[in-house]
Specification:
With about 130 residues, the protein is mostly beta strands. The chain has one domain: Immunoglobulin-like, CATH 2.60.40.1890. The protein has one helix and ten strands. Strands 1, 2, 3, 4, 5, 6, 7, 8, 9 and 10 form a ten-stranded mixed sheet that branches. β4 and β5 form a beta hairpin. The chain is globular, with a radius of gyration of 17 Å. About 10% of the residues have low confidence.
């Protein structure tokens, strides 16, 4: 009986240690001469609370990164409790503005997303031709 109780306690502790994460990041290769590139990330939220992505940064390639929904700039991107948010061209995505250098197909660019709880989600985004 004690062993069952300990096993239950340990398994629930492991579940509660799951963290918000960013995966499957990629950047659409911009046309020659373009100064903006669009980026897409999957943010997974295994927690019991909604999470809000409030900032994105990549000092390597862009002066500024905007959070967008379609063509509109937004203040945050919501990731529902126990859910995920797959960024896509016709929905939520990131706009890397004022590119500092030319992006090449296959480049790996570090991105950092920040949540409303000041959690930093680091992910490598691969540049590709769609």
């Amino acid at each position: 009986m004690l062993a069952l109780w300990i096993a239950t306690l340990l398994s629930s502790s492991v579940v509660s240690l799951q963290e918000v994460s960013a995966t499957e990041a990629w950047i659409q290769l911009p046309d020659a001469g373009e100064t903006t590139a669009l980026a897409y990330v999957v943010v997974k939220n295994p927690t019991m609370y909604d999470v809000y992505v409030v900032k994105a940064a990549s000092s390597d390639v862009a002066e500024e990164i905007e959070l967008r929904n379609g063509e509109s700039v937004v203040k945050d991107i919501t990731v529902s409790a126990y859910g995920s948010r797959r960024m896509k061209p016709d929905g939520f995505h990131l706009a890397l503005k004022e590119l500092k250098r030319t992006l090449e197909d296959g480049d790996s660019i570090p991105l950092t997303l920040t949540t409303d709880g000041n959690v930093k989600l680091r992910v490598q985004a691969v540049v590709r031709k769609e």
